[in-house]
Write a structure and sequence with these properties.
3-stranded antiparallel beta sheet; 2 domains; alpha/beta; binds iron/sulfur cluster; 345 residues
């Protein structure tokens, strides 16, 4: 059973747990309480990332439930006395601010533009392969995860689901029939809302009538600078009920960002040790354009080396706009949509 390495200086090279072939999460006993605390503080990110990325339900149904909960309670991640149900919910939860859960019927991808340079999914795939996760045996090579296809049908509580946080559904190596199967699952799982984000919207547009385009599927594309606004035009050609833009990482000004037929815009800066800078004037330019066109605007983060410290206030406010899905409008028309840019202090 491969272990999860610990990066804390006090317990370097020791493992806090492992993942069995069957996907069970097992936590090893620690030698002393203070050492346990070091493990908890330094390893909790790895632990949560591992649970949320693999979202193996077995992980929370088998060995180690009480041990994991004790550790999480110790560092304030859950309240003491939390039960396995809460842990299971966390296993399916996403840390991405604008969604609730992730579903990965495909893993792996290839870089296509500057926004991909520090791809989080690629880093995670490398780490998960090293941990012995069988889903990531091919690391970042495009791999169909057919056994995960029907997972959303088993989730009864309605939720917002980000499709393929570890891949791009419209990558050229994903067979057309498989994309159709994914859409068929999303259509059947009508209790959920699915957010499909791609850097390859031209393929989504070309598939046209081959896809059912149910109302619970939101289609989005990433745009990192003015060189890639053509993706917006491809996105608008799709028959998706809600179309959104993820402008993250924002790497340059986009003064003429096309917004016709767009129902939601998310902006964020890059985070991590090699984060590329995002200028505030680029953000204001997009925010003002969205406000003028009545398009809901969500500001995710400033990013940088310490993204928590940089926060997500813009003009002293948070911007949590979400699409208004209650009004039915003709194709490509968002003029009558009430902006739901919810502003909180
Ligand atoms: S398209 Fe997305 S998943 Fe694929 S390499 Fe680029 S950033 Fe990573």
């Amino acid at each position: 059973m491969p272990g999860i390495g610990c990066h804390g200086w006090a317990c370097r090279q020791r493992a806090i747990g492992g993942v069995s072939e069957g996907g069970a999460l097992v936590v090893y006993p620690r030698a002393s309480p203070w050492q346990e605390l070091w493990h908890d503080v330094y390893c909790r990110t790895v632990l949560v990332e591992m649970i949320s990325v693999t979202h193996t339900e077995k992980a929370v149904e088998q060995v180690g439930q009480s041990s994991i909960l004790r550790r999480m309670a110790l560092v304030g991640m859950v309240s003491s006395g939390s039960n396995a149900k809460e842990l299971k919910t966390m296993a399916q939860a996403s840390s991405i601010e604008w969604t609730e859960s992730t579903w990965n019927p495909v893993t792996g991808c290839t870089k296509i533009s500057p926004g991909c340079a520090h791809c989080y999914a690629q880093r995670m795939a490398k780490r998960l392969k090293a941990m012995g996760q069988t889903r990531y045996r091919n690391e970042f090579k495009v791999t169909l995860q057919a056994d995960a296809l029907e997972t959303p049908l088993r989730w009864k509580r309605p939720r917002m689901i980000f499709v393929n946080s570890m891949s791009d559904l419209f990558h050229e190596d994903v067979p057309t029939e498989y994309i159709i199967e994914c859409f068929s699952v999303m259509e059947k799982a009508a209790q959920h809302t699915f957010q499909v984000l791609t850097k390859r919207p031209e393929r989504a547009a070309a598939m046209g009538d081959n896809l059912p385009w149910p109302k619970n599927v939101w289609m989005g594309t990433s745009v990192e600078n003015a060189d890639f606004t053509s993706r917006v035009h491809s996105l608008v050609e799709t028959r998706s009920a809600i179309r959104f833009l993820s402008i993250e990482p924002l790497l340059g000004p986009i003064p003429r960002l096309p917004l016709r037929g767009i129902h939601w815009v998310i902006v964020g800066g890059e985070s991590g040790p090699a984060a590329r800078p995002m200028e505030s004037k680029w953000v204001f330019q997009i925010r003002d354009r969205c406000v003028r066109r009545n398009v809901p605007f969500f500001f995710k983060q400033w990013g940088g080396v310490n993204k928590k410290k940089a926060g997500r206030l813009l003009d002293g406010q948070t911007w949590n706009g979400m699409p208004n899905i209650s009004c039915e409008l003709p194709e490509g028309d968002n003029s009558g949509r009430q902006s739901s840019n919810r502003v909180a202090g």
